[in-house]
Design goal:
Blueprint lengths: L12 H6 L4 E2 H29 L6 H22 L3 H5 L1 H18 L1 E3 L2 E7 L1 E3 L1 H19 L7 H4 L1 H16 L3 H18 L3 H21 L1 H11 L10 H13 L24 H33 L4 H25 L17 H18 L10 E2 L2
Antiparallel strand pairs: 1-5, 2-3, 3-4
Amino acid sequence: MALFKHKRMDTGKTLREDSTGLMDLSFLLLVILLTLIGLLMLFSASYARANWEKNGDSAFYFRRQVYFAVIGFVGMLVAGRLNYFIWFRTALLILIVSLGLLALVPLIGTEVNGAKRWLKIGILFQPSELVKLGMVFSFAAMMAAWQNRMDTFKYGVLPYVSILGLIAGLLILEKHLSATMIIFVIGAVMMLLGGTQKRWLLLGVLLGLTFLLIYTTTRGYAGGRITAWQNPESQPQGSGYQIIQSKYAIGSGGFLGLGLGRSRQKYLYLPEEINDYIFAIVCEESGFVGAVGILVLFALLILRGYWIALHARDRFGTILAAGLTTKLAIQVFLNVSVVTGLTPPTGISLPFFSSGGTALLLQLFEMGILLSISRWCTNKEVTGRVNA
């Protein structure tokens, strides 16, 4: 389904003729390296829980993640070979489907750990992750098609605010504040890059902060998380327990860490040690040095993603790459800041590390789209490209 007509991208023919056909090698290697490290850390963090929950099958979570990683790498390479203009044509369809799935969650969703955010259609997955991707596709497509009208309210504000409002409304029904925050930040960054006038963005930020204040003060569970974050010791066996245990893990790691596989907190002391709080296990086992090294790898990947965006050959590629990279950057920042106690708990997983097969598949697929865009970067003198 074609949502718009783009003057510089009428067909894929021009792209193929101008393309070097080579993916960005440095970006690809960073993705592979982070995924492999993530699998290693997941095995270390998960075998105690798997041994207890899966009748002695200590490799259960690791084996499942490897299975999805292999499929994800294949999907990434396929997406990297596709002409990324296909996402321009299908943006509206993907957005509608993802919104439809998101709307089903309050009706027939599956509850996990007290939160009803999942659908089970063969596999268990969160529609909120798919709707983020649909939003990025649709925003990039609209901004590319309406390039010369983005300074108007009709084309530069109204469509994006409407989509964001609809998504936020559905996410609030799930009590999914973290996903709501992420889609607003991604949307604001893309609108800024797309050309929306700054006064509208400033107004949006003020309204967003007002909403956040009202939401956290009127919703008991959200306010409780903030109270626990400010003073976790006041609820050591309640809302503050997870934060306290995470800090124990980080502090135990010291400068060089306890060593791979030697974490103590993973023995069912730290909740969600294979999901939202896996970075605490990373800090405990690899210490300050290992944690900083992983953050440097993430920083390099994010910077390279923005480099690809800056050197994309057309407006759609630029905004799409920037949106996907911003999504990755926000998730990394929020996860690490929660684990280290810089921000209240939000329930955000760490890309490439946290357990979750469908999440890993989607993350690798998004990296494949960035690799596809890199094949048509305007800087043809760049070294470090690979034909894949």
